[in-house]
Amino acid sequence: SQLTGIAIGAAVALLLIAVVVFVVYRRVKQSKQLQPHVPQYRFRKRDKVMFYGRKIMRKVTTLPNSLVGNTVPRQRMRKRAKVLSLAKRILRIKKECPTLQPKEPPPSLLEADLTEFDVKNSHLPSEVLYMLKNVRVLGHFEKPLFLELCKHMFFVQLHEGEYIFRPGQLDNSIYVVQDGKLEVCIQESDGTEVVVKEVLAGDSVHSLLSILDVITGHPAPYKTVSARAAIPSTILRLPASAFQDVFQKYPETLVRVVQIIMVRLQRVTFLALHNYLGLTTELFICQSQAIPLISVASVTSGGSSSKAVKRQVSNVSEEDRGEKFEKAGEALEIEPILFLSSNLYLKKQKYEKNVVTEGKRRNSSGAKSDMDMAYERARVHFGSEDTASSPVVGKSILKKTVTVTETPSAVFHYSAVQDSCNSKHIEAIVEAAKKDLSTLMKLDDPSLLNGKVTLHQVTAGTVLSRQGDQDVNVCFVVSGMLHVYQRKIDSEEDTCLFITHPGELVGQLAVLTGEPLIFTIKANRDCSFLSISKSHFYEIMREQPSVVLGVAHTVVKRMSPFVRQIDFALDWMEVEAGRAVYRQGDKSDCTYIVLNGRLRSVIRMDDGKKHLTGEYGRGDLIGVVEALTHQPRATTVHAVRDSELAKLPEGALTSIKRKFPQVVTRLIHLLGEKILGSLQQGGHPLGLHSSSSKWDAGNPASNLSTVAIMPVSEEVPLMAFTLELKHALSAVGPALLLTSDNIKQRLGSAALDSIHEYRLTSWLGQQEDIHRIVLYQADSTLTPWTQRCIRQADCILIVGLGDQEPTVGELERMLENTAVRAQKQLVLLHKEDGPLPSRTVEWLNMRSWCSAHLHLHCPRRVFSKRSLPKLIEMYERVFQKPPDRHSDFSRLARVLTGNAIALVLGGGGARGCSQVGVIRALIEAGIPVDMIGGTSIGAFMSALYAEERSYNQMRIKARQWAMVMNSVFKTILDLTYPITSMFSGAAFNNTINNIFKDKQIEDLWIPYFTITTDITASAMRVHTDGSLWRYVRASMSLSGYMPPLCDPKDGHLLMDGGYINNLPADVAKSMGAKVVIAIDVGSRDETDLTNYGDCLSGWWLLWKRWNPLAEKVKVLNMAEIQTRLAYVCCVRQLEMVKNSDYCEYIRPPIDRYRTLDFGKFDEICEVGYQHGKTVFNVWCRSGVLDKMLRDRQETCKSKTDVSV
Description:
By secondary structure, the protein is of the alpha+beta class. Among the domains are: 105-250, Jelly Rolls (Sandwich); 427-558, Sandwich (Jelly Rolls); 570-626 and 643-679, Jelly Rolls; 706-893, 3-Layer(aba) Sandwich (Rossmann fold); 899-1085 and 1122-1194, Cytosolic phospholipase A2 catalytic domain, CATH 3.40.1090.10. Helices cover 40% and strands 18% of the residues. Strands 32, 33, 34, 35, 36, 37, 38 and 39 form an eight-stranded mixed β-sheet that branches. Strands 1, 2, 3, 4, 5 and 6 form a six-stranded antiparallel β-sheet that branches. A six-stranded parallel β-sheet has the order 27-28-26-29-30-31, with helices on both faces. Strand 29 (795-801), helix 28 and strand 30 (823-830) form a beta-alpha-beta unit. The longest helix has 32 residues, at 2-33. Residues 65-69, 117-121, 303-366, 383-419, 681-700 and 1195-1204 have low confidence and may be disordered. The active site is at residues 936, 1056. It is found in: Endoplasmic reticulum membrane.
C-alpha cells in the first residue's frame, strides 16, 4: 500500500510537470508565431494609474457643467477646484499640445491628366486644330488673322519614301502632318543623310528663321535639310507668303511676330546651345555682312565712291585678320581713353516725341494693340515731358560738353568743336551715313531718322556695352570696327564672335527682343558709328512697322548654317496645365527647354506612392540625363500650368556631338555636376538648372515666376501686404503687382472676357518675360480674376492674421473643390507689439496639404487703416527707400525667388557655445538668416535664435543653460542604474524644458529643423514640426549618457543626430537654401594620445590625475569618445559638404576645449565672436557677401564709367 501511494504521488507529480511543460511550450510557440514587426507595448503600473486617473479627472471636470439645474453651493465648488488642482499636481497633468496631422499632397499636385490632346472631341476640323496648335508658336493671332491664314493652306499626299522637300528647293512653307509620319534629315559633309527627328500627326516641320526669310523678302533654298515620308502621309502645307498678305492688312502684327521669333531664337540659341552645350563662335558667321556705304564714300572721297568703299572694306578685313583671334581678356582690360581730335563732332539734337493719344493706342475694346505689346516686351518707356525744337546744328555746337547717357556701360564726354568747316564736313558725313542707314533699314522716308540718330566717335579700347546689359542702342558702323565678344562657359576667357565692319548694324537683336545683351561690344581701334536708342528705334517702327523686316534680316544673316539646321530640328510645344510631357518608363528620345510656365517632376515608388522630386521654371533643361544615357524616363513630368517648351530631339543632339566633339566634354561636365549635386542633396539627377554663380545648381524653390496671393478673410490687409512684398522683391529684381483693377486700367474693362482669352494670356506671359516675378493679388471672392490668378500661379500664398482664431476662408473652401496644381504656402501676419506666434498647428491642420508656412513680423504701416489712394501714396514714398534686408518681408522675397540664406550649426558639446559668438558677428556683418537648423548642441543654439531672433536674449538663455549643465550636484542626482544609460535624463529634460516651455517648432519665427538618429528604423530623421524641447533633447542624446527619447508620434527611439549627420548643410540645401553658412564645432583628430596598452584601469587614471608627481596621461573620457564616434560616422558626409559649392564652411579655433567644458561659456563664446568677425570682414571686402545677396538668376554685370 505504501508503494501504491508513492506510485500515485509520482504519477500526479509527473502529470503536473507535464501540464506545466505543455503550457510553457504553448506560450513559447504562440509568442514565436506573433508578427515580428508589430510592437508589443508593456505599461508600467505607474502609467496605468496616471492613464485612469486622467480619465476620471476629465469626467470630474465636465460633470458639473453637464448637470441640468446645477445648484451646487459655491463653497463645495471651491473645494472641488482645490481637489482638482491637487490631483493634477499628483498626476502631473499637463495640457498636451496638438500635433501636426501628416498629410499627403493632393492627387492634383502629383498626378498628370490621363487625357491627351484630343482631336475627335473638338468642334474644330482636325486640320484647323493642328494648324492653330502649330501657328501659335508665332504668338497670338486674333480670329480674323487666323482665318485669313487658313485660306492659304492646302493638302499634299505623300507615298512612303517620297520627299516633300530636298536641298535646292525653295524653303518657303510650314508643313503640318495631318496623318502619317515624316523624317527630317540633315545632309552631312560626306553626303550621307542623318535623321534628326521624326514628325508625327499634329506636329510640324518649319524653321522660324525660314519664315523670317520669307517675311523679309529673302527666301532661300534648303541647303542641307530634307524631309521624307516614313509611311504614306497626308501633309498640310501653309506657304509662308500667307503671312505677307496678313501683314499687309494688319501691319502692327508684323512687329510683334518678328519680335516673338527673335525672342525664341535668342533664348534657345543662347540658352541651349551656348549655356548648356558651350558653343560660341559656331553660332555666328564671322564674314562681313556689310552693305556698301555709297553715300559716305561719295562725301569722303569726293567721287569714286564704289572703289573707296571696296578699298575701305578690304583694308579693314586684312588689318583685322591677325587680330581676330587675339585674347579678348587682355583686350577688355585696356582703359578706355578719350578720343579728342579736330574732326570730332557729336550730333545731339533735341527731338519731338510722337505723342500718341490713348484713343489711338487702344483699340475699340480697350485691349492693347500689338505695337503697344511689342513696346512693353522691349522694355521701352516714354517720359511724359515732350521737348521740341528745330534740328539746328548750331545749337549743339554751342554746348561745352555733351554726355551720352543711352549706353549704360559707359559715359562718354565729348568736347564740342568750334571749327565751323569741320562741323560742316562732319555734318555732311552724318547726313550721308543716315542715307546709307535708311537704305539698310528700308526706310520709305529717311527724314524719320532726323533727331533720332547721334554720331559717336570712340577711341581704341572703349567698351560700348557689356554682356548682360539691359538698355542697348542700335549701332551702325561708319568707319573703323566694333569687335563682338562672348564669355566662354566655365572660363573667364572671352572669345571674339565676329567683327562689325562699316555698313553693318550691331545690338539690334537685344533692341528687338528687350532681352539682355548676349555679348560685349568693344572698339579695339578708333571707330565712328551712328547710334539709335531703343526708344527712338521703336518710334521709327511705330511710323513704319516694315522697318523691323530689314533689321531682322541683318540678324538672320549673322546666324550660321548650323543654327538653321538646329532650328529645323527643334520642336515648339505648348503643354496645357496637368498634361504630361512624358511619363515614367517612356523611351528617352529628346531633351526639353522650358521657355515659360512651370513643370513638375514626380516619381512613382515600388509601393505605388508618388513623391515630388523637383520643379522646373523658365530656362531649365529637363530630361537630359536620361536622353544622354539612353535610359527610360525615371519620372513623370507634367505641366503645373500652361507652359511653352522647346524640344531638342535625340537625333539633333547626336548630330551636334558629331559635328562639334567639344560638346561631349561639356555634356560630361554637366552630367558630373548634376550627379554630384544629387548625391550631396539626396535628390534625383533629373533636371539641369542654368548656373550663373557657384550657388545656383538645382534649387527646388527657385525659378518661381508667378505668385498668387489670397486672403483667409476680409480683415487681412491684402493690398498693404502685397505692396510691402513688392517693395522687398525690388531688392531681388523687377517685380510687377497685378490686381483686377489695374488689369482693367491697362488692358480695358473687357480684358477678362473669354473673347480676349488668348490676348490676355499672351500679355501675362510677356509680363513674366520682362519681370523677375509677377504677383497676382486675388479678389476676396471667386471671381474670374481670382480663377485667372490660380491658373497662372507657380505658388499660392494664403495670407492670414496670426492673432485671430485659426479658420479656413470661404475662398479656400471653394479652392478645395478645384484641382489646384500650384503649391500652397501659409503666411501668418503678426503685429509689431502683438503676441508671439501660437496655434500654428491648428491653422495647418484645418486645411489641406501646405508645402510650407511662414510667420511675418509686420511693420505698423501694414495694419494702418488708410483708404486705397492714401495707402498707395504712402507706399510710393516707401518704394523710394531700399528695403531692409533683415525684415521678414525680405525673407519671404528671398524664399520665393530661391535666394534663401541658411545657417546650419553642427554638434560638438560645449564647443557649440562658440556658435553664439559667431551669430553675434553674423548680425553685425548684416547677413540675414532665412532658415536655421542644426544637430546636437547646434539644434539647441539654432532653436534659441529661431525663437528669439535677438542675440542678447539668445546669449542670456544659452549662458543660463550652460551654467546649469556645469552643476555637478544636479548631474549626480540624475544618476541611475546603468542598463540603458548612466543618467535617467529627467534633470536634462528639465533644463531644456525650462528654456523652451511648450513651444512648438511650427511657432518659431524662422523656419527651423533639427536632426536625430532613429535607431528603431536605422535612419536619419529631419524634424520640422512638433514639440521643440523634445526634438532638441533627442538631438542631444549621447549614447551611454542619456536614454533614447521615444518619439511621441510613432514611438521610435531617437538618439543624437551627430551619429548620422553632424553638420546638416545638405538638408538645408534640399529645403530650398541657395547659400548655406555651416559652423562646424565637431571633434578633431588627435594623434598625441597616450598608448596605455591592452587594458585600462579607471583607478590608475584617477591616481595619475590626482598625483602631482605622476606623469600626465592623455586619454579620452566617455563624452569625448562619443563625440569622436559621431564625427567618424559622418566624416565622409562632412567632407562632401565642405567641398560643395553652395556651402560656406566656418570652423572657429575651439579644439582646445573639451566636450563638457560648459563652465567656460564666456571664453568660448568670445573665441567664436572674434573668429566670425574676422571671417565676415573678409567676406565683405572680397565680395562674397554681395554674391550671396545677389539674385541667383542675375547675370554678373560689371559697369565702367569713362570720363575725361
